[in-house]
């Protein structure tokens, strides 16, 4: 026997292999046999072998010997070289269904294998195996491959976050008993840590019921409990004028806006001043010691019968009247219904014509107004509409030096603005059904994605529409005060990414279907958000989402005392996501952590140094 075999584990590889060596003596015998048999000096060709050269391996995977194939979908090429000339027959196996592998069926000496579309493949560890055959000989070469997303956290803290989370109420005939019916509602609201909770009184909660006749009963049923929680500083959006101030077509009768201004004056005297006395000599004054100092002027004027020029005149008239009644107020302007080209159509006239003080400019964002819109359309709305419009609003404000530094608030936000008109969809004309994406696992992936994008777009406030409602819009169920998944998602974002936390850079192989945000909080702890917004199928409407796996590298952070994890997805209990301990009292294990998000969802990692 002339051959020697050595069996072992190649450093950095997960599987064993066999090396075959031929001794010099054995080679000599083979050569002599060839000479004797053939009567010539021609030696036999060496055994067929091939070499598989992979691309550069990321440093944080090199110790495992595995090449990262990112689910971002970036193609990877492997160069293969053979030690013999001639026509090679090839096969490539080992990668899962969903990965496209292209290569020639027959080649000369060297060739390239292209691996594409890993986004469609299940994550995990695999072995790419290349087999080549020539003249009865066969050779193989393999490469361990890990299909996943790689994310590497950096240690240096950057710019502070500026996005505050909040929620909203719409006091009205159908809404005002909420706090009366649910004793636990104030605690649930406080759990969100909301800033400047938005109050939008309409319908029977508008307190001036006739000229000079006031009744704050229904309005205060919501306002007074709200004043007692959060930052004790809600924004009162004066959404509409009292009904008697409109004509039959919904236009304000007094186009000088003095009548509406007087109504606004008395509202601020009630909630921010010393009260006012009506025509019957009755004193009206808020019973709360907390004062409302933030005021929004009109709701969605662009779809409520006010041109941009009319709204600018209204704002310039009403705000000075309110300031004269109670000094020291803050004002939120525009509160635009955003769709199509509305910012471009409406903002320029206001920005160039406003003379009254502006403390924030607000807009509203819903991903769609159609229950039939696909999941992908709703996800696409974030970069294609939300981010683009925020960038435009910021650029437009900078054309007026007085507004250049004014913050932008998103004071209404949800996945779908569609609503029922006597059982008919307001948007598509078909039967109306609740869009459950507002409280399903879809929402967790969508809101997490949106939150991180809004941070980077420079929005200063993000308000959920609204707190107590149905499964399409609410954070808690109006009838039972039971939190939806949307409540737990918003609570987690508010608690873990407060304004002032400093963002940490994340190097990631994925930029498409997974959003990653990391921040260091004032106490030194670190929060990491991973939002999976990958859509499984193009036609999905509240589908399951596509699973994604992540290799999270925390080595740059040094020693950690504890790591905890929370997951918000289709499996999250109604009582909220449990906080799971990955390690406690000193984390001495590996610094690379493997995690999987099983479809739409959001996962938080909480790290203590």
Kindly state the percentage of residues in helix.
10-25%
Based on the coordinates given, report the CATH architecture of the largest domain: Alpha-Beta Barrel
What's the total helix number? Answer: 11
Sheet having the most strands: 13 strands, mixed
Query: What ranges have pLDDT less than 50 throughout 5 or more consecutive residues?
Result: 1-40
Quick one: CATH class of the largest domain? Alpha Beta
Any idea what the CATH superfamily of the largest domain is called? Glycosidases
Mean pLDDT: 87
Radius of gyration equals 32 Å
Q: How many domains is the backbone divided into?
A: 4
Large-scale geometry? elongated
- Proportion of strand residues: 25-35%
How many strand elements?
36
Structural class: alpha/beta
CATH topology annotation of the largest domain: TIM Barrel
Q: Termini separation (Å)?
A: 61 Å
Throw out a few tags for this protein.
609 residues; alpha/beta; Immunoglobulin-like; 9-stranded parallel beta sheet; 11 helices
Description of the molecule:
The protein has eleven helices and 36 strands. The chain is an alpha/beta fold and 609 residues long. The protein has four domains: 44 residues, no CATH class; 100 residues, Sandwich (Immunoglobulin-like), CATH 2.60.40.10; 195 residues, TIM Barrel (Alpha-Beta Barrel), CATH 3.20.20; 102 residues, Sandwich (Immunoglobulin-like), CATH 2.60.40. The strands form eight sheets. Strands 4, 6, 8, 10, 11, 29, 30, 31, 32, 33, 34, 35 and 36 form a 13-stranded mixed sheet that branches. It starts with a strand and ends with a strand.
């Amino acid at each position: 026997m002339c051959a020697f075999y050595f069996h072992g584990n190649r450093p950095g590889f997960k599987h064993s292999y066999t090396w075959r060596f031929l001794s010099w003596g054995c080679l000599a015998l083979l050569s002599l046999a060839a000479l004797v048999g053939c009567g010539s000096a021609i030696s036999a060709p060496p055994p067929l072998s091939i070499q598989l050269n992979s691309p550069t391996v990321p440093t944080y995977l090199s110790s495992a010997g595995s090449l990262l194939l990112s689910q971002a979908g970036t193609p990877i090429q492997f160069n293969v070289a053979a030690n013999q000339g001639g026509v090679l027959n090839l096969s490539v196996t080992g990668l899962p269904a969903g990965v496209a592998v292209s290569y020639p069926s027959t080649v000369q000496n060297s060739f390239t294998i292209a691996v594409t579309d890993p986004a469609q493949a299940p994550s995990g560890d695999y072995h790419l195996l290349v087999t080549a055959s020539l003249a009865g000989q066969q050779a193989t070469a393999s490469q361990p491959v890990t299909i996943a997303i790689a994310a590497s956290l950096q240690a240096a803290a950057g710019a502070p976050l500026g996005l505050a989370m909040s929620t909203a109420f719409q006091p009205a005939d159908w809404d005002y008993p909420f706090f009366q019916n649910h004793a636990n509602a104030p605690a649930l609201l406080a759990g969100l840590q909301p800033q400047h909770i938005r109050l939008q009184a309409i319908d029977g909660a508008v307190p001036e019921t006739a000229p000079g006749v006031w009744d704050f009963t229904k309005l205060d049923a919501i306002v007074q409990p709200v004043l007692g929680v959060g930052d004790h500083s809600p924004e009162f959006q004066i959404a509409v004028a009292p009904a008697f101030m409109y004509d039959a077509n919904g236009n304000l009768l007094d186009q000088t806006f003095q009548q509406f201004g007087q109504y606004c004056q008395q509202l601020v005297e009630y909630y921010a001043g010393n009260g006012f006395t009506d025509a019957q000599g009755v004193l009206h004054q808020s019973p709360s010691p907390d004062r409302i100092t933030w005021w929004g002027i009109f709701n969605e004027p662009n779809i409520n019968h006010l041109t941009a020029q009319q709204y600018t005149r209204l704002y310039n008239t009403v705000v000075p009247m309110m300031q004269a009644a109670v000094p020291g107020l803050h004002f939120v302007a525009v509160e635009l219904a955003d769709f199509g080209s509305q910012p471009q159509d409406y903002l320029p006239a206001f920005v160039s014509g406003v003379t009254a003080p502006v403390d924030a400019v607000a807009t509203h964002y819903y991903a769609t107004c159609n229950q039939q819109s696909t999941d992908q359309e709703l996800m696409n709305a974030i970069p294609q509409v939300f981010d683009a419009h925020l960038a435009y609003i910021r650029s437009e404000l900078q054309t007026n030096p007085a507004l250049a530094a004014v913050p932008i608030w998103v004071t209404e936000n949800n996945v779908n603005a569609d609503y029922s008109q006597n059982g008919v969809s307001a948007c598509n004309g078909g039967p109306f059904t609740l869009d459950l994406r507002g409280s399903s696992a879809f929402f967790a992936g969508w809101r997490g994605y949106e939150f991180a994008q809004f941070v980077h777009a420079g929005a200063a406030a993000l308000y959920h529409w609204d707190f107590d409602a149905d499964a399409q819009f609410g954070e808690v169920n109006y009838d039972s005060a039971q939190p939806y998944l949307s409540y737990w998602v918003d609570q987690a974002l508010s608690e873990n990414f407060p304004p002032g936390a400093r963002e940490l850079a994340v190097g990631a192989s994925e930029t498409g279907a997974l959003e990653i945000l990391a921040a260091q909080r004032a106490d030194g702890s670190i929060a990491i958000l991973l939002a999976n917004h990958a859509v499984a199928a193009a036609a999905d409407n509240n589908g399951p989402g596509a699973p994604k796996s992540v290799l999270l590298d925390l080595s740059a952070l040094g020693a950690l005392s504890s790591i905890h994890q929370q997951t918000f997805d289709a499996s999250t209990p109604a009582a909220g996501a449990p906080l799971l301990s990955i390690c406690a009292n000193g984390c001495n294990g590996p610094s690379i952590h493997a995690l999987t998000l099983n479809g739409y969802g959001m996962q938080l990692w909480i790290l203590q140094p």
